[in-house]
Structure prediction request, 431 residues.
Amino acid sequence: MSQIKQFTYIFVFILQIFALGETASADGLEDAREAFKKENYSKALNLWQKLAGHGNGEAQFMTGYMLAKGLGGLTNKADGANWLQKAADQGIAEAQFALGTLYASGEGVIKDDKRAVEFYRAAAVQNFAEAQFQLGFMYSHGRGMDKNDQVALEWIRKAAQQGLGKAQILLGSLYLAGQIVERNEQKAASWYRTAAEGGYAEAQYQWGIMLAKGTGTTKEPAKSQEWLTKASQQNLPSAQFSLGLMLIKGLGVPKDLVQGAKWIEQAALAEHAKAQILFGFMFETGSGVEPDPEMSAKWYYRAALQRDDEAIRHLKRNSDAGGLEAAFKLGQLYASGEGDSKDMSSAIELYTKAAGSGYAPAQYAIGEIYARGDGVKQDYVEAHKWANLASANGYMEAAKARDLFAQLMTPEQIAEAQKRARIWSVEQSAN
Prediction:
């Protein structure tokens, strides 16, 4: 189940009309609400604090909320909790839920799961959907009481029946996986569809996938495309990847390589590893985009940074086939240790391979390695040599690095570095 979110408030309730205390000013409440809507938090807090002192429940809740969240220029979680307690004592469900969240997280109060459950339950029996969902979470994880999956399911279902999207999505996933409940694809599809129609991107994606596969419903690729598009337009990377793949392969819909590539790119930019690999392959093969070995290596590399074995295999394959860009990116992985364990020997070997063919970024990288003494003996002569070669090949940063190295060298060392660079260039030309 999803983790408890600190201060998950339903703002549709925040400004609802609470019962006014006898001494509370209706005009004062309206002014505070209006200031809050206009994000004039300092004014809103000032107005609500005055009304809270007169015992108005709404004002006590909003004062506690704003102090806990730091709205209005003041942050005092302990005072916020005190005001929320006063509102909770008046039976205000929003305050009970908020206070439960504080006790569950330990913000402004001493962390106490039993107290959290107490306040969640008080709000839940008043049909506050968020509280019902969180109470189900607490039961499912055995926090504040004995673990009880069936009771957890009951509270989550109550929240879902009230239209809480994340509860509907969770029920869909439980029915699809057969977890806690007996596996039922039709019920899973029903809950995902309900949440999807409520505008929840994750549900739109899941419902789209079920339509594409015919899981728990009739297989309808065209409708699947519609729902995946809705989720993709909400910037859900998994949906963008699936939609792009559907268009690229023409899975039940007209093939569209160009549009498919656009969705794959959006998912790749959001660090979706499979999308990055596919986008790299598209640049490698020229599918839907112009062939570009450097872009291909770049996207394989970004996926490899997430320790994706398939991406690393692609880089190795292209490097072994003579791809300079792939060799360089693979070298970066070894040098940083981000894709796997750090291996400077392999990094230098790969950089040298690419540098030998005049690949300036690799030449510059070798110069940096020698300047730092990273895996090799520090050698400013070699550093200057490689930076000079990279500069000659148009790598702008290399000229700055070469000049910086020169400041740390004697005239004799600079002359030796220049000599080595000339010799290397002649040897490469001869080969």
Summary: Residues 411-430 form the longest helix (20 residues). The chain is about 70% helix and 0% strand. The two ends are 62 Å apart (CA to CA). The chain has a mean pLDDT of 92.
